[in-house]
Design goal:
single chain; alpha+beta; four-stranded parallel β-sheet; 28 strands
Length: about 450
């Protein structure tokens, strides 16, 4: 996450250093920074005229999804593209880790056409700026099934794709990346904190529907006062309609009282015959409101980016950038345009405010310099504060970059001997459980149901 106390990313883009080239090639005002791209630019892919980039060169900084997308589209437009990646791997934040077992590796590469020996990742390098941990090799234990293996992977970076992300889904469709449903939060997941329910976990359904019931009851009892002055003419009819809706919303009694709901789950699950079950004990409104961190997490699923349906590539999030690398564009596979282990340390000009930009990199063979017509920065903007930006950006850009902050975080994956969370007494199939503990979240895999093992995100 990148935050800024006083600057916006748009101002940095206006410094003339970073060009949104894919959009700018069809709108000069975007390239110059004089016009903010409308939302449609971010969602709709530009139709670049054939050979619009003939004779023009572009340096792209970063081989993550943004860098690969930019390289792909510009190569299609005839630009001569070189991608510089400071790290030893592709994908940027999209990092999928698999078992280090050589037999499993051979099986996975055979199963997934775009996965190759040089793109298979079984180690998280100590590459993150300021990282306090050494490289970590995955010790996931493969489980054989017949002549193959039970599929195992851990998405150490992003883990789901909202259906409103039409751009990335366009490429998944175009490249034939197989997709599957991803569960973000389901009513069967758990909530746990020291304040709620005496510290004992409760299911999301119990918290959610008890909260809806309590709030609906309060609104029902005060429905007349809740109506606006504009509704006064039909106040009685509207009040009746509102109360009827609240009875349905909160599962209230006909008199508007909330006495628990089967929606919240059961302490004793209904069975055959006359066994109608026993509903779970009702949570009080005050204890639910007291644990703000928990109810805030539950409501995160209402965010547009997290609403169902969500999707994930079959086999891991890296299947998207693996597909990009395998695409032949501009006469060669895209991965041939990428220089790994090449850190950009300088973007300079010879004193003019236009003309080529000299890109200085530090790589395995030392420092090198090359001139480009355009530069597209897709990496974390704060990295620019360590670059030489002579005659490319002034003090304002340095102020902007210096004001940016990167928040710390961690994502911890671990393999379970059994899928205990799917047992009948728990019944969790995918989704996320939230806790007031420092681990915050537990992610359950949305694949391999009832399988022999599984990889959990044990903290995030």
């Amino acid at each position: 996450m990148i935050t800024s106390a006083k600057r916006t990313r748009r101002r940095i883009l206006q410094g003339g250093l970073v060009a949104a080239a894919a959009a700018a090639t069809w709108h000069p005002s975007v390239l110059s920074g004089l016009l903010r791209p409308p939302p449609a630019v971010a969602q709709s892919l530009p139709q670049l005229p054939a050979r619009i980039g003939a004779g023009k060169s572009v340096a792209i900084i970063g081989a993550g999804i943004a860098g690969l997308t930019t390289a792909y589209e510009l190569l299609r437009g005839g630009f001569d593209v070189t991608v510089f990646e400071a790290e030893s791997r592709y994908g940027g934040r999209s990092l999928t880790v698999r078992p280090s077992d050589p037999d499993y590796k051979a099986w996975a590469i055979d199963r997934y056409p775009n996965l190759t020996d040089f793109t298979y990742v079984d180690t998280i390098p100590a590459e993150v700026r300021g990282a306090k941990v050494p490289a970590q090799t995955a010790r996931f234990h493969p489980h054989r099934i017949g002549d193959g293996y039970f599929d195992m992977h851990f998405n150490a970076g992003p883990g789901r794709i909202p259906t409103i992300h039409t751009g990335i889904l366009h490429y998944c469709r175009q490249f034939g990346v197989e997709m599957a449903p991803y569960l973000f939060v389901s009513e069967g997941n758990l909530l746990q904190s020291a304040i709620l329910n005496g510290g004992k976990p409760v299911q999301v359904r119990q918290f959610l529907y008890d909260m809806l019931g309590h709030i609906s009851e309060l609104l029902y009892l005060n429905a007349g006062e809740a109506l606006t002055r504009a509704q006064a003419r039909n106040a009685r009819a509207i009040e009746t309609q509102l109360k009827s809706f609240l009875v349905s919303l909160g599962d209230l009694s006909a008199g508007g009282r909330f006495a628990g709901s089967s929606r919240a789950g059961y302490a004793v699950v209904p069975g055959a015959g006359t066994n109608s079950g026993i509903m779970a004990p009702q949570l009080s409104l005050d204890e639910m409101l007291a644990e703000g961190s928990i109810w805030a997490d539950v409501m995160d699923s209402a965010h547009l980016d997290w609403q169902l349906p969500l999707l994930e590539p079959v086999g891991g999030m890296d299947m998207i950038w693996q597909a990009f690398l395998a695409e032949t564009v501009g006469g060669a596979p895209l991965h041939t345009r990428i220089k790994l282990n090449h850190n950009v340390i300088g973007l300079t000009r010879d004193g003019t405010t236009a003309g080529p930009i000299d890109v200085t990199t530090r790589g395995p063979d030392g420092e090198a310099n090359a001139a480009f017509d355009y530069v597209v920065m897709t990496g974390v903007p704060i990295l620019m504060r360590d670059m030489d930006l002579t005659n490319v950006a002034g003090e304002a850009l340095y102020d902007d970059v210096s004001s940016l902050l990167i928040s710390g975080g961690f994502k911890y994956g671990w393999q379970a001997r059994t899928r205990f969370w799917e047992a009948p007494d728990t019944g969790i199939f995918g989704g996320i459980s939230f806790t007031g503990h420092m681990i915050k979240q537990i992610w359950y895999p949305s694949n391999g149901y009832n399988g022999p093992t599984g990889i959990l995100t044990g903290a995030y």
